Amino acid sequence: MTLSIEEVERIALLARLSLSEDEKARYARQLSAILDYAAQLAELDVEDIPPTATVLSIHSVMREGDEVREGLSRADALRNAPATDGASFIVQATFGDEE
């Protein structure tokens, strides 16, 4: 499939792009190549290929011997904090006029 300059201009208008004449010609070639490749992919028979979430092998990130343990208590977590309200950390506001 070959895109015309008019089609590239329409795409550029939708994308709010201002293109020079050289860019229009270049994008017509590049977008046409992309569409040709997509058409090739559409012709592939993938009926017997199961859906794939990842191409990477799946492995456990846990090391042998890792086990779930009790975490810090709230009091222990807050013990060295510079400011708390007894239940949470108190931190300086990041946005706004508050100090």
Describe this structure in words.
The protein has 99 residues and is an all-alpha fold. The chain has helices spanning 5-14, 21-42, 74-78. The protein has a domain at 5-42: Histone, subunit A (Orthogonal Bundle). The protein contains three helices and no strands. Helix 1 (5-14) packs across helix 2. The mean pLDDT is 90.
Task: Name its key features.
mainly alpha; Histone, subunit A; 99 residues; flat; 37% helix
The overall average pLDDT, rounded, is 90
Percent helix among the residues? 25-40%
**Distance N to C terminus:** 61 Å
- Spans where pLDDT lies below 50 across 5 or more residues: none
Short synopsis of the structure:
With 99 residues, the protein is mainly alpha-helical.
What is the fold's blueprint, element by element?
Blueprint lengths: L4 H10 L6 H22 L31 H5 L21
